[in-house]
């Protein structure tokens, strides 16, 4: 298996632009998690899905952030409009088991908002 | 609120030495305590994990020690190698769900 696939790997955009991050989970994994990593705040859970349904979005910082999982093979995290403080590495992780044990992380998307 | 505190922030060890990283948590409603390892430019990867019904788990050179009464757990890396140089994160999982809360991370450097 190719593991969790994220795209793009790097994104540079200007403040106010829309940013869409993409994730393809490992086949058969029912849980999908979106994390944000920064030096100041560490690794934070933004939202997670179970069987394509959002379960906990309490970590989504504000309404500018939205996430979708239209099917078992694809998820997006969208930021609109983007701000410089959104600059971070965004990880997608998936897990095959109830309880989210052993989460498999993707390589991340490094986002820079100028 | 910060539910898990990790220390030290950075650690330098000589090859062959023992690396020890500590985590303390504030809530008793956790049932799973993993450690993740992250190399530069990569996503974190599960290293080892423990449940609260045991006090120690060992996998090769890596050992978790768990103290339920003190609400602390630690990672011990025996015979540390330069290839162990990475950032290590402890985490806790809430009993009621699938959310992992991560510690701040420890940057480990093992000198040759």
Structure commentary:
The complex is a heterodimer of chains A (114) and B (112). With 114 residues, chain A is mostly beta strands. Chain A has strands at residues 5-7, 10-13, 19-24, 31-38, 42-50, 53-56, 65-71, 74-79, 88-95, 104-105, 109-113. Chain A is 0% helix and 54% strand. In chain A, strands 2, 4, 5, 6, 9, 10 and 11 form a 7-stranded mixed sheet that branches. A 4-stranded antiparallel sheet of chain A has the order 1-3-8-7, with no helix packed on it. The radius of gyration of chain A is 13 Å and the shape is globular. Chain A starts with a strand and ends with a strand. In chain B, the strands form 2 sheets. In chain B, strands 2, 4, 5, 9, 10 and 11 form a 6-stranded mixed sheet that branches. In chain B, a hairpin with a 6-residue loop joins strand 4 and strand 5 (45-50). The model of chain B has no long low-confidence stretch (mean pLDDT 93). With 112 residues, chain B is mostly beta strands. Chain A binds chain B through residues 4, 31, 33, 42-45, 48, 50, 55-56, 91, 93, 95, 98-108, and chain B through 32, 34, 41-46, 49, 89, 93, 97-105.
Oligomeric category: heterodimer
The portion of residues assigned to helices of chain A is under 10%
Q: Whole-number average pLDDT of chain A?
A: 94
Order of helices and strands of chain B: EEEEEEEEEEE
Termini gap of chain A: 36 Å
Order of helices and strands of chain A: EEEEEEEEEEE
Radius of gyration of chain B: 13 Å
Strand content of chain A: over 45%
Contiguous low-pLDDT stretches of chain A (5 residues minimum) are: none
Kindly name the structural category of chain B: mainly beta
Helix count of chain A equals: 0
Q: Which two chains share the most extensive interface? A: A-B, 25 and 20 residues
Main β-sheet of chain A, in a few words? 7 strands, mixed
Distance between the termini of chain B: 39 Å
Helix content of chain B: under 10%
What would you call the shape of chain A?
globular
Taking pLDDT < 50 over at least 5 consecutive residues as the criterion, the unreliable ranges of chain B are: none
